[in-house]
């Protein structure tokens, strides 16, 4: 129903009656010029007309304030973009410095006091598993013992030192609290929680800004809640898009932004409930009789505007419930299908329910169509035949290889470490031809559109997939596993790659790198380790010619990579899981300098001392350290909090968490 059709309705069909004045032409001019006999405002007293005038002014002011919401959002994004640009520039300079330091350490390594020509080795895997006493930052500083007082001074332990306060604050922001009891809901880091609470405070501020705190003006509260819903639409759809500009502007991966996407969706569902209940409360409890065209519930709920609003409300609430983690894990295929159908229906209902929402509906629909149809279906998607290899009773590989072709579509042009793709297997059935499931690329990354020697670079592509037996029998991963038991090859469609270079840039800029993988989290850490060590080994030192470079490459494969120490901890549940990555590839990485620790499987020896292992690596590091963890929620939280504790002690530590799961 458009604006002209609404204005053509009989006055008695508008509930409340003054909505006609709000929707049709200039309501204030109508009040000033007077009302005709057919106008719903006819016959009102001067006091009632003044009340409606104030009400309309307050409604317009409230909508103007809510419309400025996206100005705040764009400003916040711009600030994050500037900070990300500065961090990128700083990381690039540090990476170049590390490469130059690696070249400059050649002479130093060959002139050690023991004459061995090697640098001092780091702790072995056996030593790491032992109990370690961590030194504080003050223990590493040379101190003149003769000048120390016999009794400690209270001023010497001043907790208000600016550096200590900053470290404590950064540590608190990085810290991740335990899950909420009873419901066992996983909480993000304090910094993420603080940012989300600040965003919620902005929304609440807009909701109550200049709101008349009188029951007679309660309609403004209900109307503003509905308007707050629609101004969040573009942000919601932007965060859900795989090709969103936010990833490039802020450096955050799709997985990290998806946390914020879910909070935006939850808040919008809350304000939708608030708008719906508030309108009912105003219509049947608060509004005076002279404001209503009809008090009949049947007349109210059968009005076109109300029916369209109920349709939008039900659609978005169903979107919320089908997006819950418990629902996605059990019925992922239904989640995918319902998301597309319900989004289209909800936008259609919202278009007809509230004409002011239409610019926001158009923006949301444009983001959705550009991402899903124009970009993903045409530019990013490729079809090919892949090999299927069953590794154990619940894990299998989908793999293939090809020559990287710069300018080609999707993964044919290459990918970067931590990138993921959406996999579609039409051979599993008609319904699966419309489903796309996300998986991280578990093999070494050839780069995007980069030509190798003689103009060619070969890509070895593999997806490490574990069947989800908790799904209903028709689940995608379970059906693909059964298909892999009887078929060696299958035709697939790959949509991607998607990802963020932030993690690799952070690791490249650090002189000490710690990577922790839990189970199939090795699909994230292995490509990163491969990229870090191979790019260092293949980079010629300054003032070296090609003949010398071959000798240096051979030398580096027997010694620690110069300029950077790389540690990796891989926690597995079964010894079968350790066969997911070929032993030859792990041995090659160890020969190139990787300090690898693979504890006995947890089903045999219990959980390893992750806190002690990672803590010792961080404490022994000289200079800055970057930590990346990919695994289940419990492992991610332990590693994050170890890094947070080290920051509180004054260590220069950065951390990235790549959470896997549906």
From TrEMBL:
It is found in: Membrane. Coiled coil: none annotated. It is a multi-pass membrane protein. GO terms for biological process: copper ion import; intracellular iron ion homeostasis; iron ion transport. The chain crosses the membrane at residues 67-85, 194-211, 217-239, 267-287, 299-319, 331-351, 357-375, 513-533. Pfam families: FAD_binding_8, Ferric_reduct, NAD_binding_6. GO terms for cellular component: plasma membrane. InterPro entries: FAD-bd_8, FAD-bd_FR_type, Fe3_Rdtase_TM_dom, Fe_red_NAD-bd_6, Ferric/Cupric_Reductase, FNR_nucleotide-bd. This is Ferric reductase like transmembrane component-domain-containing protein. Residues 372-504 form the FAD-binding FR-type domain. Belongs to the ferric reductase (FRE) family. Keywords: Electron transport, Glycoprotein, Ion transport, Membrane, Oxidoreductase, Transmembrane, Transmembrane helix, Transport. Residues 104-128, 538-559 are annotated as: Disordered. Its main location: membrane. Residues 115-126 have a biased composition (Low complexity). GO terms for molecular function: ferric-chelate reductase activity.
